[in-house]
Amino acid sequence: VTTRTIPFYLDKPGDKPAANGDGKVLPASALHVLKHDGQWIQVKIDGWQQVGAERAMYALKGQRIFTAVLAGETASKVQKLKTIEDADTGLTWNQVELTAWVQDQGMLPNIDTLWVFGSDMYSKTCGTCHAAKNTTDYLANQWPGTVKARQRGTARDDEQGRGLQKYLQFHAKDVTQPKPQVTE
């Protein structure tokens, strides 16, 4: 599980990788480890893409819980597993996976430690000026706007805000699927 936003690469880079890579994996994203090679890990990134917005990979169908953002032509390298139309919205979603390389740093073996940190950050930063809402008071797609609107009044940086947002989204009223897990 990623602890921060990290670049990923379709091909294993040499000694001096490009800073932006072929895209970015966002905090609290599960990566399935395929192989280790020195400081690099080959991983499989699973997710969902909304048809017409293929540069983003989401953790769950219909939920705007970002897993990865794809650069340029990277979207064409994603393997489509199945296509589903969301009956509630009429939107079409592709279940996808992408094999990529990431550096072997800033990772945790499971999400539990990150969720403890997210819960603590939420209660300390959002419960300082007002009573913090229960995470299930909002839908997953409502949390981003709420977090962004309140970001200005806190000492959190953007990266912490992304991690907090993902914690809140995975603990929202309408997220009943299992939380991200890591396989190796």
Features:
184 residues; alpha+beta
Residue share in helix: 10-25%
Shape, principal axes of CA atoms: globular
The helix tally amounts to 3
User: What oligomerization state is this entry in?
Assistant: single chain
Query: N-to-C terminal Cα separation, in Å?
Result: 11 Å
Main beta-sheet annotation:
8 strands, antiparallel
Mean pLDDT: 88
Q: Estimate what percentage of residues fall within beta strands.
A: 25-35%
Uncertain stretches of 5 or more adjacent residues? none
Find the count of extended strands (DSSP E, 2+ residues).
Answer: 8
Structural class based on helices, strands and sheet pairing: alpha+beta
How many whole angstroms does the radius of gyration measure?
A: 17 Å
Written as H for each helix and E for each strand, in order along the chain, the element string is EEEEEEEEHHH
Descriptive overview:
- The chain has 184 residues and is an alpha+beta fold.
- It has helices at 112-126, 143-151, 158-170; strands at 6-8, 23-25, 32-37, 40-50, 53-60, 63-70, 79-85, 92-103.
- A hairpin with a 2-residue loop joins β4 (40-50) and β5.
- The N and C termini lie close together (11 Å).
- The model has no long low-confidence stretch (mean pLDDT 88).
Structure described in brief:
This protein has 184 residues and is α+β, with helices and mostly antiparallel strands. It is 20% helix and 32% strand.
